[in-house]
Amino acid sequence: MKASHYWHCFVGIQTREWLRFWQQRTRFASALVRPLLWLVVFAAGFRAVLGISIIPPYETYITYETYIAPGLCGMIILFNSMQGALSMVYDRELGSMRVLLMSPLPRPFLLVTKLLAMGVVSIGQVYVFLVLALLVDVEPPLWGYLAVLPALILTSLMLGALGLLIATWIKQLENFAGVMNFVIFPMFFMSSALYPLWRMNEASPWLYWVCQFNPFTHAVEAIRFSLYLEWNPVAYGITAGVTVALALMATAGFRPQRTRILGGKPA
Amino acid sequence: MTIEARSLGFRYGDKPILREVSFTLTPGRFHALLGPNGAGKSTLFGLLTRLLALQQGDILMAGQSLKKQPADAMRQIGVVFQQNALDLDLTVRQNLQYHAALHGLSRKEARKRGDRELERFHLLERANDVVRQLNGGHRRRVEIARALLHEPTLLLLDEPTVGLDVASRKALNDHVRTLCEHDRLTVLWATHLIEEVREDDQVLILHQGQLLANGAGHAICEAEGTRDLAETFHSLTGAG
Fold first, then answer.
1. Domain chopping of chain A, boundaries
2. Which of A67, A230, B20, B128 could disulfide-link to A57, CB 3.0 to 4.6 Å?
């Protein structure tokens, strides 16, 4: 196969995802309600009880809204990635997956491209969220919006690959409620999305270490630091390493017979 | 292109689904894969399309092993699945372009080939319609047109008439036979409906994972001492 074949395939998968996004734009808009509620309602209530000291990458005292905005960006990607991965192997995307897997191009390339395409749509939502966050005075530097893009791409690929891995191999988590209870909520709450880790350490050292081992923590920190034009090599390095490992496992371990792609119940 | 299946075996856990299935598909011929529900037809399609990994045996396409040269093989195969594989919310043309892109075709080439196929299927005027607006028969035609976009030499159809009325079923069956004759396309048409099979077709009868008969329909009837394929099918499988 020539490089041009890969390129046309890549563009085709991206285009299809955007076409579907456009068809279902109301559903995508409603997906923004959740993080906005957290930002406007939850953060307003929490601000009163939680003081934030000056911690990097911030150079001054910040509002709680400013603190949780990067975590909520991660949350948008987390929900979308899990939902997208489940729909790939159990639900709405089954037809398109059958067509996808009939391509002569290598399966890992097809799956990573598909995950990236779903990620691009999530990232679009993150940017809309960040624009709306300006209304509650979450104002990162202008260049931060561009600098955060690689972190958002890595996060979406990491979580998409995790979702695909879970959806393919853990039969008990074949519905969204299961994934929400056993994957999304633990990942989100046991991370630095809602509270700084030093606070967590004060409250419970073992929880602090759980948060440290949670890759979502490092993805959120990579988003946070790049949004404020600071370089955090540890967060970036861990996120990139976990992304590569999960993408390899999810694509190499992908078995259509463990999904509903063939029709009927998974084996 | 000759397609040869050699001693295919497949099991889900301890349950055998296919046992020692071997056959050869003749280039440019219509082959009917006949079997009652649960015979193993979809599993066989899964193996031919690489959705299932080969456990035992091999499939050779023009002499090349599906295990060793999967990309070459996939370029030669067009597939129509039993379940709908169209994006209902996208237009007919958008669906075709997605498929073409997956086979590495440029947008320009995809448009050219897509329009050519749609014209052949008398669907060109529906190209910009959302698939959801099409009836079942037209959707199936779009799926066949799509499967032919990358100009395969083998067309696999897994119970393509499921859910269609009698007239649409016949029209679709006739249409694929015409393609087979005109384009020298090798066709494998899986069905459990005996009325979709003709006596001069190459017939493969699959039952409980085993190939019970393989040859020209009339030759099978002769060998079984039966009057027609319906009787043969009934005597071999107890179905029909």
1. 3-258
2. A230
